[in-house]
What we know:
Elements: H1 2-24, E1 38-39, E2 47-48, E3 55-59, H2 61-66, H3 72-75, E4 82-86, E5 94-98, E6 109-113, E7 116-117, E8 136-143, H4 147-150, E9 157-163, E10 171-179, E11 183-194, E12 197-208, E13 217-229, E14 234-247, E15 254-255, H5 256-261, E16 274-289, E17 294-312, E18 320-342, E19 345-366, E20 375-397, E21 400-417, E22 425-443, E23 446-457, H6 461-466, E24 478-492, E25 495-507, E26 510-513, E27 518-521, E28 524-539, E29 542-555, E30 571-580, E31 585-594, E32 597-598, E33 606-607, E34 610-621, E35 624-631, E36 639-645, E37 648-653, E38 658-666
Parallel strand pairs: 6-9
Antiparallel strand pairs: 1-2, 3-8, 4-5, 6-7, 8-9, 10-11, 10-38, 11-12, 12-13, 13-14, 14-16, 15-37, 16-17, 17-18, 18-19, 19-20, 20-21, 21-22, 22-23, 23-24, 24-25, 25-28, 26-27, 28-29, 29-30, 30-31, 31-34, 32-33, 34-35, 35-38, 36-37
Amino acid sequence: MKKRIIILGGMLILAAAVSASAEEDRSTDSKAIELEPITVTASRATRTVSESPASVSIVSNQDIAQTNAKSVAELLKNIEGIYTYDTSGVGSTGAVNMRGFYGGMSSHQLVLIDGIPQNKGKDKLVDWDLISMDNIESIEVVRGPASALYGDNAMSGVINIITKKPKDKSESKLLASYGSFNTQEYEASTLGAYKQLGYFAGASYKTSDGFRRHCDYDRTHVGGKLDYAINDAQALKLSLDYSQKERGALPWALTEAQITQDRRQARPGTENDKSDETKSDVSVTHTWDISDKINTEATFYYKYNDSNSFYTSGSTESTKREQLNDEDVYGLLLKGGLKQEILGLSHEFTGGVDLERANFDYQEYNAPYQQRGILRSDYGVKRDKVGPFLQDEIKLIDPLRLVAGIRYDRVNFDFDDKRTATNSKTEKMSKVTPRCGLVYMYQKDSSLYANYAQAFRTPTIGQMFTYASSANPDLKPEEATNYEIGLHHRFSEFLRANLSLYWMNLDNEIWYDYATNKYQNYGKTSHKGVETSLDFKIVKWLSGFANYTYTQAKNETGSYNGKYLTSIPIHKASSGFHFATDFGLSWDLGITYTGTSYIDSANDNKLPVYVTAETKVSYEYKAMKVFLAIDNLFDKEYNSYGFVSSNTKYFNPAAGRTFTGGIEMKF
């Protein structure tokens, strides 16, 4: 408690100092920080952050340019309420933990690209390294349950990646970089417009030997977008995306003795492991502003994911297995908006339905020395989802708005075991999830909010059916109830702050039980926390941020009653500064403190505290920019994740100091 008070007190002192300094320097700087970012994710409609009854963060295009993040997961690491880690050292194995839900073997946040779901059907995970950084315009992060708008899996929040849009003025970019572990990256993109047609096209290639030995990595990405303005009221949008990666061994966890021997080694026996994966996406969207009060949007999407991998289940080549995964997903998102005055009150309705069908096929063979042998598993799963929703925003009085919504989701699983027909099974799950919130705009760009929301999350296909002896077809869906209050406050045009306090109760949270080697429903758990942040600009050439997160995720029933859930840091704090000059030179510095987390359910073993820093120096002259970036500036040796199995502790060692240098050209 004392540590939390010191951190919060320090942030308040910083706020006062920054506000006073900014007021003194107001006359010398006409360009203040952007105070009111726009979000479409929090309400499935365009709103400012302060109009949203939720905790929202925006990663802007400028933020992306200032960081040395190698993946989307790394872009999110300095946001309050989020804990991320990557054991590859090159951004190829990112995991995201949001509001106290461990992100390594389960995913409780819904990830979208331009509003289209990206979580895979098998495990609800997201291959962050298959989402290229070359076409991202911004990222919207909404923390807290959002099932009333987005349904299944939006339990801890929503991450919506907004891609670059065509512009009237044409622009092209070339980028090349080289870094530690022989990491090379090349990007090329162009965007513009011709009459009523806007276009964007981009391609990138990345290759690396990897921080861990035998973890070499190659990824190719090609994407494009066409926007056609049918008339002043209607538009048609086409998006295409293709990614392919080849990877060596996965960076499995190591024992303490193995880490002492060589932090970079792969787990013995995995030296010849490899995988090949492709991901293709296509979507078509039609928008229509029928009048100033009525609008519609319809999106059809198709996603295809195919992977083939060889992995070693034991410690020798004779235990190697081959896995084949094939998943295709069809979806239709229908949404409409209506503004109407009823009984003297202004209403704004948003409603629609989300439809999705996922087909997943899985095969596993014994493959000693990478020679296909006996068929071990052969499954097929169909997953159908239907989710109608309705939300109403009511202006009760000018500064006070009520936001109420409700959604019904029905999810059907049809599991077909092609080897043992008696194992085939059909599961049906459904849930109604309401939400209600109040937003009081007490001054410009400042508001108080409170909300109540329910959420649910179905088990993954893997947890129920395909994770061999670890699977548990009797798993129940997780259900959550969340209470939250928060503040968006603008001190001045140079300083803004956010604060949120939440309490979430869960039933049937799913966790991997190392004692039984099975996925189980834990029973009741609770997730409580505080998230606070500051964004400031002190003088013309200096801006920055600071944030702090306190997370308390605990079991509330069973043999581990009162114990913390594993792999969730209780404290986390980040700060960063951006120095910019008039002659093109800039310097960015970021520091992240990650507090203690437990690595076993009994809370007998901890992952120690660690602090990391990263820096980037850039020089821009006309159309050219060169940069040098350093991650883990002080070469800290630490482990980013750990667990206990059979009384043995395992850890994922993180990379030491790494360097990246590059050049970017715009024309």
